[in-house]
Predict the structure of 3-methyl-2-oxobutanoate hydroxymethyltransferase.
Amino acid sequence: MAGKQALNIVKIKKMKQDANPITVITAYDYPSAKLAEEAGIDMILVGDSLGNVVLGYDSTVPVTLDDMVYHSRAVARGAEHTFIVTDLPFMTYHGSLDETFRNVRRLMQEGHAHAVKMEGGAEIAPTVHSIVQAGVPVLGHIGLTPQSVNQIGGYRIQGKDEKDARRLIEDAKALERAGVFAIVLELVTEEVSAAISAEISIPTIGIGAGRGCDGQVLVFHDVLKYTSDYREKRFVKTYANIGEQIRNGISEYVNEVKTRAFPAEVHVFAAEEGVIDQLYGKGKAESES
């Protein structure tokens, strides 16, 4: 987007104060990021959801740090004027601090991310604090945490009872104290998301978390129905059906090649007059036709 200036964490926090909703979308490659930036998105998340969406895995667990660095770097090339957050993938921030710092450094230096995202609440707050103290902006993520899907028993709505609601509120407060600049709330009941948003001073970014959050994030491919076997999700609104257009376009291409309608005369290039005669001898082309 011409003239656009990337956000920073100070501006992002001020957007909550100004009641200016924050728009976030995932992107995993150069063209997606470029289109998102041109559309005016506030922030791009290079999510480890790329495992499900573009790598064909059935969860985010198999995604590696190398995967995240590779895709983050591509996104950064496509969206030079947009704030980019990249996920630390499964088990890359649960070992020693030295190991965690090495992984964070790779996302920032090689992946060109402006911030990293970490899943978890109070249990990871000390690690978050250390990373923030080292000068790295951190985006928190609570509620449904896909990296822990095997432990929590599947993709379940969070915050449905009082005990779970209190846990989520305390997790959010712990992350705020640790220094995160914002928190993603995933598949959290609307009432609890609104309560969290009211009780903390930093922005909340919802995905399936209702209308009380300070911003929203959706997956690029969900917004555009950009897949072959799209599965409807209650918390998603699709704004275009790109998948169908792509499939129809490729199908038409296949048909035109099979029927020799493509390439047509407009798509071919002609040599200078007499080139074939010079190559093969005068009259060669006519005798073989």
